[in-house]
Amino acid sequence: MTELRSLYPAIEPFESGMLDVGDGHAIYFERSGTPGGKPAVFLHGGPGGGFSANHRRLFDPACYEVTLFDQRGCGRSTPHAGLEANTTWHLVADIERLRERFGHAKWQVFGGSWGSTLALAYAETHPERVSELILRGVYTLTQGELDWYYRFGVSQMFPDKWEGFLSPLKTAEERADPVSAYRRLLTGEDEAAKLAAAKAWSIWEGSTITLLPDPALLAGFADGHYALAFARIENHYFFHHAWLEEGQLLRDAHRLKGIPGVIVHGRYDMPCPAHYAWALHKAWPEAEFHLIEGAGHAYSEPGILDRLIRATDGLG
Fold first, then answer.
1. What is the pTM of this model?
2. Which of 148, 207, 229, 295 could form an SS bridge with 301, CB 3.0 to 4.6 Å?
């Protein structure tokens, strides 16, 4: 059998800083790899998840010059957990600001989970700026996908975890529409209730993204500082359907024509059903499509990670 590929060795950025993007927001960015190498930008998940040092390791540092950044309100960007002027289209504009700042005519765009949503929104808006597109755990943010994860679907697979997710919601009305009910808690004045809700929202996701339980990963989702930004921003985006028209990203997939791409998706991805990745594959047949057996949602699933490293190598 072919040995599975894994992350490149740990690497430190050669540049980091804050970029004032207006609207009271400043985003933290890093650049790693080889200055002057093949340009790429990494788009993290959530929304509100931030990037980690391990995300630098998805790219061959001898080949790539990679830009990573914490999207508005999360990670080391400021203000922490801020929702004002924080929409999909603000983030698309931020990606363009970074590209222009670093002088790239085009760059490879790599996005996983929510990052795949943002990557599609960016690539369909600025196809002339995308050299290649790598998508993992495809999420097109339709009502069907939201209902699957926050109403009926994953709740049937994880009834014990679902009970924990519903615990901050006290009435049948709230439990019938968790996204709206959580919004009231996450934007309310009761700080204790806000933090409890943030942890419950975040732990639900951390409990369902891997094929097998991963206690170390779950511990990160349970951290209060992380959970507050993650839950507030993710709920904010999902409550507003990410400021996308229903089905927009699949509808406009024709704009990706001519962009080389790779789609990587776990067969047992709970947050992001494989149906939508398959639909994108049919709408954008030029892209390689890899449905990974024995894998859930997280990029760290061995089969998914192997295929992602092969993708960045192959397109490098």
1. 0.98
2. 295
